[in-house]
Design goal:
- The complex is a heterodimer of chains A (251) and B (238).
- Chain A is of the alpha/beta class and 251 residues long.
- Chain A is built from 9 helices and 5 strands, in the order βαβααβααβααβαα.
- Chain A has a 5-stranded parallel β-sheet with strand order 2-3-1-4-5, sandwiched between helices.
- In chain A, helix 1 crosses helix 8, helix 2 packs antiparallel against helix 3 and helix 4 packs across helix 7.
- Chain B is 49% helix and 11% strand.
- In chain B, strands 2-3-1-4-5 form a 5-stranded parallel β-sheet, sandwiched between helices.
- The two termini of chain B are 19 Å apart.
- The chains are: A alpha/beta (251), B alpha/beta (238).
- At the A-B interface, helix 2, helix 3 and helix 5 of A face helix 2, helix 3 and helix 5 of B.
C-alpha cells in the first residue's frame, strides 16, 4: 500500500483515527477551519456517510440485522462509494481531503468483531494510504468518561452488544472500546500513525496538528487559485518559475 | 463430467476462511447453484426443480441475487441511478450475498434443506472481472462463501439471449447490457458484446471452480431432464 503522494496524486489525504470520545472530530474540524481560512481547497469526508448506502446501514443497525461479516461489508461499500465518487476525483483535482476515520477504523473494529484480519485488509486494499494519519490516543477511562457523560444512551452496535461481551451496555462498551484501542496501538508503527496525546487540552493538540500538517504538506500548492501542477514531463520550465513568483506574491 | 469432485465423500468446505464460528460438518443439506445470464432459462429451470424436489419430499429454500433483507432495496435504487462505481457495486452485491448466506443458506443447510441458488458468487465475480477488478481481490472477498454441492451454468448464445430478453421485456436491461462499460452506445451491440465477454469470464472461472456447463440452447424439457439426472446423483451422495 502506498500513500497518495507516493502515487503522484496532486492532492493529499489526512485522516484522523481514535476511539469515540478521543476528540478526533473536534481536531479535524478545527484543522478544516484553518485550512479553509488559508484558502486551501479542502474536502471533509466522514466515515459511514455515503448517501447511497446510509439507509441500508441504519436499517441494519436499528433492526440488529448485521453480523460481523455484513457489518464489515456494508461499511466497505460505504467507503468504496465515497472513495470512488468523491475522494479520488478530489485528490486528482489537487484537494486536501480530510477524513474522519479511514480504513483503520475497519481494521480495528471488524477484527475485534471476529473477522479475519487478512480478509478485512484484503477488501480495503483498493484504497491508498493517507499522507498523514493522526491517532488520537487517550487513556481508555478518559474517552469512556467523555462519551458516557454526554450521551448516556448507547446504541446496540456502538456498545459492541453484538459481541455478547456483557448484558450491561456500559460494561460491554468498556470492554469493546478497550479491545479497539489495543488494535489501534498494534497498528501504530505499521501504518506510521502520528500518535497524539489526546488527554491534553484541545488547543494544545490543535497547535501540534497544524504545525505538523504545515511541515509535511506544502500547503501553498493547494490554494484555490493556484493552477493544477502539470505532469513533470510537459511542464514548461519558465512557467514554473513564474507560478512560483505569483505564489510568493500571494503570500 | 463430475460437478464438484472433492465433495464426493461428503467433504464440505468454505472457499476461504468462511464465516466465523460456523461448523461445516453440521451443514447436512445440499446447495445447488444454477448460473446463467438473464434469458438463459435459469428461473424456469429452478421453478421446475423446486416442484420436482418438493413433490419428491425434499424441503427446499431459494436464494438469489438482490434478495437480502439488508440491502436489496437500496441496491435496486442505486442501480436505477446508474451512479455505482465498480468497487461499490461489487461490495454492495457482496453484502447482499453475505446477508443471505448467513441468514438463509447456512441455517437451511444446517436444517437439512436443499438450497437452490438462482446465481451465486460466480456471476458476481464474472461481472467484476469484466469491469477490471482484481481476481485475487475477489477470491479473498468471496472466501466467505460455502462451496456448493453442484453448480450448473446454463450457456446460451448471446444472439439467442437478445431474442429471449426482447421477446420477454421488449427492452434490454442497462446493467445486463453492460452499458456502464462503454462498449457501445448502441444497446443491442453493447448487450451482445457484454454477454460474450461475460461468457469468457465464466469459462475462466470454470477452470478454477469446476462447474458443469449445460447447453441452454436446447428445449426446456430436455434441460430439466438433464439437470434432474445430475441432481439425483448429488442427492445420492451422503
Amino acid at each position: 500500500m502506498k500513500t497518495f503522494a507516493e502515487l503522484n496524486f496532486p492532492g493529499r489525504l489526512i485522516a484522523v483515527e481514535g476511539l469515540d470520545g478521543s476528540g478526533k472530530s473536534t481536531q479535524i474540524y478545527l484543522l478544516k477551519r484553518w485550512l479553509e481560512a488559508e484558502g486551501i481547497k479542502v474536502y471533509f469526508s466522514e466515515w459511514n456517510s455515503s448517501e447511497l448506502v446510509k439507509s441500508a446501514t441504519s436499517k441494519g443497525k436499528k433492526r440488529e440485522l448485521l453480523t460481523p461479516t455484513t457489518f464489515c461489508l456494508i461499511h466497505a461499500t460505504d467507503f468504496a462509494d465515497r472513495y470512488e465518487r468523491h475522494l479520488l476525483p478530489l485528490l486528482r483535482a489537487g484537494y486536501v481531503v480530510l477524513c474522519d476515520r479511514y480504513v483503520f477504523t475497519a481494521f480495528a473494529r471488524d477484527v475485534v468483531r471476529g473477522c479475519l484480519p487478512e480478509w478485512v485488509r484484503g477488501i480495503y486494499n483498493f484504497a491508498a494510504l493517507p499522507d498523514i494519519t493522526f491517532f488520537f490516543k487517550t487513556d481508555l477511562e478518559v474517552s469512556l468518561n467523555r462519551i458516557l457523560e454526554g450521551r448516556p444512551k448507547l446504541k446496540f452496535f456502538e456498545a459492541g452488544m453484538d459481541l455478547r461481551l456483557s448484558t450491561d451496555p456500559y460494561e460491554s462498551f468498556r470492554i469493546f472500546q478497550g479491545r479497539i484501542l489495543e488494535q489501534y496501538v498494534a497498528m501504530s508503527d505499521e501504518f506510521k500513525f502520528v500518535v497524539m496525546d489526546a488527554n491534553q487540552n484541545v488547543e494544545k493538540q490543535q497547535c501540534v496538528v497544524r504545525k505538523l500538517v504545515g511541515e509535511k504538506i506544502e500547503l501553498r500548492k493547494f490554494r484555490r487559485r493556484s493552477p493544477l501542477p502539470l505532469p513533470p514531463a510537459i511542464q514548461p520550465v519558465e512557467n514554473k518559475a513564474k507560478d512560483h513568483e505569483e505564489d510568493l506574491a500571494a503570500v | 463430467m463430475s460437478t464438484v469432485p472433492e465433495q464426493k465423500n461428503g467433504f464440505r468446505r468454505f472457499y476461504g476462511h468462511g464465516i466465523p464460528r460456523v461448523k461445516v460438518e453440521e451443514l447436512a443439506g445440499k446447495l445447488i447453484v444454477v448460473e446463467g445470464a438473464d434469458g438463459s432459462g435459469r428461473s424456469t429451470q429452478i421453478a421446475r426443480l423446486v416442484d420436482w424436489l418438493e413433490i419428491g419430499g425434499h424441503p427446499t429454500v431459494q436464494v438469489g441475487l438482490k434478495r437480502s433483507t439488508l440491502v436489496s432495496k437500496e441496491l435496486e435504487l442505486a442501480q436505477k441511478g446508474n451512479i455505482l462505481s465498480r468497487s461499490t457495486l461489487s461490495l454492495f452485491y457482496a453484502t447482499d450475498f453475505a446477508d443471505q448466506l448467513e441468514n438463509i443458506i447456512l441455517p437451511a443447510l444446517k436444517a437439512g434443506f436443499i438450497v437452490l441458488a438462482d446465481r451465486y458468487i460466480y456471476t458476481l465475480m464474472a461481472r467484476d472481472m469484466v469491469r477490471g477488478m482484481d481476481e485475487g481481490w475477489l477470491k479473498n472477498l468471496y472466501g466467505i462463501a460455502i462451496k456448493p454441492d453442484a453448480v450448473f451454468y446454463l450457456s446460451v448464445q448471446p444472439q439467442e439471449l437478445v431474442q429471449r430478453n426482447l421477446s420477454k421485456n421488449a427492452t434490454l436491461d442497462y446493467w445486463e447490457s453492460g452499458m456502464d462499460l462503454g462498449f457501445s452506445r448502441d444497446m443491442f451491440d453493447s448487450f451482445v458484446k457484454y454477454q460474450t465477454t461475460m461468457q469468457g469470464a465464466f469459462r475462466k472461472l470454470q477452470k478454477t471452480y469446476g462447474f458443469t456447463i449445460i447447453d441452454g440452447n436446447r428445449p426446456v424439457g430436455s434441460i430439466t431432464k438433464d439437470l434432474r439426472k445430475k441432481i439425483r446423483m448429488v442427492l445420492a451422495e451422503k
